[in-house]
Amino acid sequence: PSRAGAQVDLPFVLGRQEYAESVRRLQQATATAAGLQAIFAPAQHTAEPTYREFLERLASAAQELGPAGGGRFSGAGGVCLCVLPPQARHTESACPTGVPLGTAGHALDKATGVLHLVDDLSAAKVYELVATFGDAALAAARVRAAQQAAINERLSRVQRVLRLRRISKEPLLSVRHLDEACRRLLERAEDLRHVVEGSTLRIGFANRLSQDGLCIEVAYNFED
């Protein structure tokens, strides 16, 4: 019992964990059978019966139809599906990923190459969407991967030169602003190293200490 007198329903907790694990296995198996890199959903949706039903429908169709695109959309750098609840098609605010789907219930995120769709679509419709958007999704994913590799290289160089413990960036920081920040940090490396060596640095929009006190946040356009 807890201090409040409540008891943990252990069988319920274990049952939820087992269900979540079974959904993860079904996601992986379905993605493989359908010729996709991955299928996933926002955390709050993975426990919904409609999501599991979607996976089961698609897995069943994959047994008959085989991998989409003959398998060219599978593996690393392949097509990923983000599966959302049906209400995500009605308003942008209902879509937790921030990608507006419209009444059709699907959209390609051109920034990441992820195909977003709602879970009440038929398996045949999913195959149709992958065929329609698959090549564009692959192209977007390649661009995103190249951008991420370039970002990682820039951050790694700053980390080495300033002898940082760790470095990261705000997700909303543009590549242009990251370039500006890295250039400024490297130009001032001699002066900054004795201040930040061994620290965790995060490049963002303001100069401050993080709320937990574990990270130094620096604005991309910081001044001396």
UniProtKB/TrEMBL annotation:
This is DUF4461 domain-containing protein. Residues 110-219 form the DUF4461 domain. InterPro entries: DUF4461, TCAIM. It comes from the Eukaryota. One of its GO terms (cellular component) is mitochondrion. Pfam families: DUF4461. It comes from Chlamydomonas euryale. PANTHER family: T-CELL ACTIVATION INHIBITOR, MITOCHONDRIAL.
